[in-house]
Structure prediction request, 251 residues.
Amino acid sequence: MNGPWTFPNEATPPGSGPYYVARFAAPERRDEIAAWFAWFQLLDRAAQQSRDPGVTRLKLDWWHEEVNRIPDASARHPLALALAPVVRADWQAEQMHRLLDATEAQVRGGSPPDLEALKHQCREEQAGRLHLLANAVSDCAEQVAVYIGIVARLQRLPLDLRRYHLSLPVAQEIDAETLIENARLGRFGTELLEVAERTLPADIAQLATEPRALLAQHRRIARKLAAEHFPTRRLVSPTPIALLWSAWRRR
Prediction:
């Protein structure tokens, strides 16, 4: 693999969580993992920067076609071409399609009506990422995806609120404007974090190295969010040394 997708790239800048996940992976997999993070970044930007849902859905449809082109070496996007050598199994393409579908669901918007809907959305948004990073599918990763997804939504809440988008099932009790005014999510955040904790499997040690490092980083993010009562006006993130330590301990 070569070009702008090799490690470190725009999606794995030094000091970031993805950087340390890739840095502590097996040397022969670092470029592959960095390229996957670049693709995940592309999906995140599609969801978070969408101004016209119709146009964004067309772009995602194009990516569905692009994934289908990878096996016969007819992909056109430079990132798809970079990933082609590591997409060797049908399950990988299936997980890529799954993530594209989850991104389209995000673009459609709307708050999840209840906790079960939240958990389903988080699983669809995150499980494929964990499987692709680990280069294997596991039931454990499916469960961990729910935790990571809930924490990720709590962390990006300030960004979502700026778009008046509420990706948490609290819209029936409190609206976006009130959350911004209050500056804290408070007990709602605590309750959601408790839900996330209950989804974690008993034997996390069976996770592959990369998903385990991501989980450790998100647990650290969760602790910091809780300590600051889940801010709604500013982003909260651990320091680079904290992210490094979390990933290093889970090697």
